[in-house]
C-alpha cells in the first residue's frame, strides 16, 4: 500500500461498475468517489436511472458484472452485504423497511449488535454482544435522530412515516458509519417534516462525522443540502459537481430538470 | 382411563411436543423445511442402534442422536440454501429427503429394514421426558430473549434486508435449522426407547402431519402457539373418546374451523399485542415534537 495520508483516501469509491439485468444495462460504467471529508452529497436522476441499483452495488446486495468497490482504501468487491455493513457502509431503503414485528428499539439493537461483533465473517461472534455496549449505542442512535424514548417500545406500524424514517436512520447509525446511504429519505414527507429531516442530516454530518449520500427527487431539498451532486440517466453518470455546476449543465437540464423555468 | 394409559398418553404427547418445537423453528423464520420426520428418524435410529447394538449409555446415545439429526438438518438445509431454493421448492426438497431416508431405512439390514428395529432397551420414562420437555420449553423462552430469537423474527419479517445490517444470513439460518433438526432427533431418541420397536414407516408423512397440525392451530408467531396446538390436538380427542371412531371427525372439523376463523393460527403477533395493550392501557404519547402528524397508510 502506498503511504497516502488518511484524508486522501476516499471513504467509499466505486470504480467503473457495470450491472446488467438480462438485456438491460442498469448501470453503465459508473464511478463515484465519496471523499473522506464529512458532508452531504446526492444522486439524482429520473426513475429507472439506476440510482437505487448503485446503492445495491455499494452495499453488496448486487454484484456488479465488473467494477470495484473500495471502502476506505480496502478492496471490498464481491464481499457479502453483512461484511460491507460491518466495514462501515449503512443504508436505508426506498419505502421504509423496518422489521415489522420487532420494536423500534429491537430494530435498532439488531444492527447495533452486528456492529459490536468483531468482524470475522460468518463467525458465531455475530450472535453475541461481546462488547456489551450495543444497547447503549442503540439508544444513543435513537437519541441522535430525535426519537423520544416513549416510542422505542412500539412496533413500527404505530409510528408516523417521518418517525419510521428516523428509526431507519438510527438503525443505520448504530455502526458509526463511514458512509450513510439514504434512499429517498424525504419522499412522502410534508414541508415541515422535510425541513426537520434536512436539519437532522446537517447535524448528523457534524456530530457523527459521517458522509451522507442521498437519492432524492425533491430538487429544492437537494440543491439546499448537497455539496456535491451526481446526475444519472439510463444507468450512466451524466454529470458531477456542485449544485451550481449541475444546475447549469445543459445535458442535465435536458435529461432531468426538464426546463430552466424550474430553477 | 387407567393411570397407565394416561402416563403413556402424556409421555408420547411430550415427545411430540419436543419434535413439534423442532419443526416449528424453521417455520418461525418462514422457511418451509418439512423434513422433520427424517430428522426424528435419524435420532430414533441412531440412538436405538447405539444402545441396542453398541451398549452405549442412554444419555450418550440420546446426545449422539440429537447431534446426528442436527447434522442431517444442517446438510439438507445447506444444500437447499446453496441452490437458493425458496417456498414450495424448499418444501418439496426437504420432504424428498425425509421420504428418501425412509425408503433407504426400509432396505438397510443392519437396522432391521422394513421389519423394523426390535428389542430396543426401555430407558425413556415420564420423568425423563417431562424434564427434557421442560428444558426445551425453557430454552425457547430464553431463545426469544436472545439475539438469535430477534433474528428469527427479523428473518420472518424481511429476510432480504437482514444481511444489510451485518448479520450473516445463511449461517444464522443454518444454526436455527440445525437446532430444529436436533430437537427432532432428541424426540426420536426418546420415542424409540419408549415404544421399543420402530419401523421406517413410523417416520412417514403421517408424522409430518401430526407435527404440522399444531402449528396450523397455534400459529407461527410464538412457540407457545405450537404448544397450545399440540395440547388441543393431543388431549381433546382423548376426552371425547366416547365418540369412538368419530373422534377424528372432531379433529378435522376443529382444523377446518381454525383455518376459516383464524387462518394465521390462534396466537399471532397481533394477539399478543392486543393482550399487552389490554393489560397495560396507557395513552400513547404524541410523536416527534408534534411536527409529524400525518400517517401514511
Describe the SSE topology.
The complex is a heterodimer of chains A (263) and B (297).
Chain A lengths: L11 E10 L2 E11 L4 E6 L6 H8 L7 E6 L2 E2 L5 H6 L2 E3 L12 H13 L17 H11 L16 H13 L5 E5 L7 H17 L3 E5 L3 H7 L2 E6 L2 E6 L1 H6 L1 H8 L6
Parallel strand pairs in A: 3-8, 3-9, 6-7, 7-8
Antiparallel strand pairs in A: 1-2, 1-4, 4-5, 9-10
Chain B lengths: L2 H26 L7 H18 L4 H25 L4 H19 L20 H18 L3 H12 L10 H27 L9 H14 L4 H17 L7 H15 L7 H11 L18
Give structural notes:
The complex is a heterodimer of chains A (263) and B (297). With 263 residues, chain A is α/β, with parallel strands linked by helices. Chain A has a domain of 79 residues. Chain A has nine helices and ten strands. In chain A, the strands form two sheets. In chain A, strands 6-7-8-3-9-10 form a six-stranded mixed β-sheet, sandwiched between helices. A four-stranded antiparallel β-sheet of chain A has the order 2-1-4-5, with helices on one face. In chain A, a hairpin with a 2-residue loop joins strand 9 and strand 10. Chain B is mainly alpha-helical and 297 residues long. Chain B has one domain. In chain B, helix 1 packs antiparallel against helix 7, helix 2 runs parallel beside helix 4 and helix 6 packs across helix 7. At the A-B interface, helix 2, helix 3, helix 5 and helix 6 of A face helix 6 and helix 7 of B.
Mean pLDDT of chain B equals: 88
User: What spatial form of chain B do the alpha-carbon principal axes imply?
Assistant: globular
Roughly how much helix do the residues of chain B carry, as a percent range? Answer: 55-70%
- Low-pLDDT residue intervals, each spanning 5 or more residues of chain A: 119-124
Q: What is the average of the pLDDT values of chain A?
A: 85
Structural class of chain A: alpha/beta
- Outline of chain A: globular
Helix content range of chain A: 25-40%
Tally of DSSP β-strands of chain B: 0
**Strand numbers in spatial order across the main sheet of chain A:** 6-7-8-3-9-10
Straight-line N-to-C gap of chain B: 56 Å
Radius of gyration of chain A: 18 Å
Order of helices and strands of chain A: EEEHEEHEHHHEHEHEEHH
Largest interface by Cβ-Cβ < 8 Å = A-B, 51 and 36 residues
Amino acid at each position: 500500500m502506498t503511504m497516502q495520508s488518511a484524508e486522501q483516501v476516499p471513504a467509499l469509491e466505486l470504480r467503473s461498475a457495470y450491472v446488467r439485468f438480462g438485456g438491460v444495462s442498469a448501470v453503465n460504467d459508473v464511478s463515484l468517489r465519496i471523499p473522506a471529508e464529512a458532508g452531504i452529497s446526492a444522486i439524482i436522476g429520473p426513475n429507472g436511472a439506476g440510482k437505487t441499483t448503485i446503492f445495491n452495488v455499494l452495499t453488496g446486495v448486487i454484484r456488479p458484472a465488473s467494477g470495484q468497490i473500495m471502502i476506505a482504501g480496502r478492496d471490498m468487491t464481491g464481499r457479502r452485504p453483512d461484511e460491507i455493513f460491518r466495514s462501515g457502509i449503512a443504508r436505508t431503503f426506498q419505502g421504509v423497511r423496518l422489521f415489522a414485528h420487532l420494536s423500534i428499539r429491537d430494530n435498532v439493537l439488531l444492527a447495533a449488535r452486528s456492529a459490536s461483533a468483531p468482524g470475522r465473517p460468518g463467525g458465531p461472534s455475530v450472535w453475541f454482544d461481546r462488547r456489551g455496549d450495543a444497547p447503549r449505542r442503540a439508544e444513543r442512535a435513537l437519541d441522535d435522530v430525535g426519537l423520544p424514548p416513549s416510542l422505542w417500545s412500539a412496533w413500527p406500524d404505530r409510528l408516523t412515516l417521518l418517525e419510521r424514517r428516523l428509526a431507519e436512520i438510527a438503525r443505520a447509525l448504530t455502526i458509526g458509519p463511514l458512509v450513510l446511504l439514504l434512499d429517498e429519505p424525504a419522499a412522502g414527507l410534508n414541508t415541515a417534516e422535510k425541513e426537520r429531516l434536512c436539519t437532522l442530516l446537517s447535524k448528523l454530518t457534524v456530530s457523527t462525522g459521517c458522509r451522507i449520500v442521498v437519492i432524492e427527487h425533491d430538487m429544492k431539498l437537494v440543491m439546499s443540502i448537497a455539496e456535491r451532486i451526481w446526475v444519472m440517466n439510463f444507468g450512466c453518470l451524466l454529470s458531477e459537481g456542485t449544485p451550481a455546476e449541475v444546475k447549469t449543465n445543459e445535458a442535465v437540464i435536458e435529461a432531468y430538470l426538464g426546463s430552466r423555468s424550474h430553477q | 382411563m387407567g393411570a397407565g394409559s394416561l402416563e403413556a398418553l402424556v409421555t408420547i404427547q411430550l415427545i411430540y411436543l419436543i419434535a413439534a418445537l423442532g419443526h416449528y423453528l424453521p417455520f418461525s423464520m418462514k422457511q418451509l423445511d418439512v423434513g422433520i420426520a427424517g430428522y426424528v428418524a435419524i435420532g430414533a435410529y441412531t440412538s436405538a442402534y447405539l444402545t441396542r447394538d453398541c451398549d452405549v449409555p442412554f444419555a450418550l446415545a440420546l446426545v449422539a442422536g440429537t447431534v446426528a439429526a442436527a447434522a442431517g438438518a444442517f446438510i439438507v438445509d445447506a444444500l437447499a440454501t446453496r441452490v437458493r431454493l425458496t417456498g414450495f421448492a424448499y418444501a418439496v426438497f426437504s420432504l424428498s429427503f425425509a421420504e428418501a431416508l425412509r425408503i433407504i431405512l426400509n432396505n438397510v439390514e443392519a437396522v432391521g429394514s422394513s421389519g423394523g428395529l426390535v428389542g430396543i432397551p426401555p430407558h425413556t420414562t415420564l420423568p425423563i421426558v417431562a424434564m427434557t420437555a421442560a428444558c426445551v420449553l425453557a430454552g425457547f423462552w430464553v431463545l426469544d430473549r436472545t439475539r438469535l430469537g430477534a433474528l428469527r423474527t427479523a428473518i420472518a419479517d424481511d429476510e432480504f434486508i437482514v444481511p444489510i445490517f451485518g448479520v450473516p444470513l445463511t449461517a444464522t439460518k443454518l444454526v436455527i435449522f440445525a437446532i430444529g433438526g436436533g430437537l427432532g432427533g432428541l424426540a426420536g431418541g426418546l420415542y424409540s426407547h419408549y415404544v421399543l420397536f420402530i419401523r421406517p414407516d413410523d417416520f412417514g408423512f403421517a408424522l409430518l402431519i401430526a407435527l404440522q397440525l399444531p402449528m396450523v392451530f397455534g400459529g407461527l408467531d410464538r412457540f407457545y402457539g405450537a404448544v397450545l396446538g399440540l395440547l388441543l390436538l393431543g388431549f381433546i380427542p382423548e376426552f371425547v373418546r366416547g365418540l369412538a371412531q368419530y373422534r377424528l371427525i372432531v379433529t378435522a372439523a376443529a382444523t377446518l374451523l381454525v383455518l376459516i376463523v383464524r387462518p394465521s393460527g390462534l396466537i399471532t403477533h397481533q394477539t399478543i399485542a392486543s393482550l399487552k395493550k389490554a393489560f397495560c392501557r396507557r395513552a400513547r404519547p404524541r410523536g416527534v415534537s408534534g411536527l409529524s402528524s400525518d400517517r401514511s397508510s
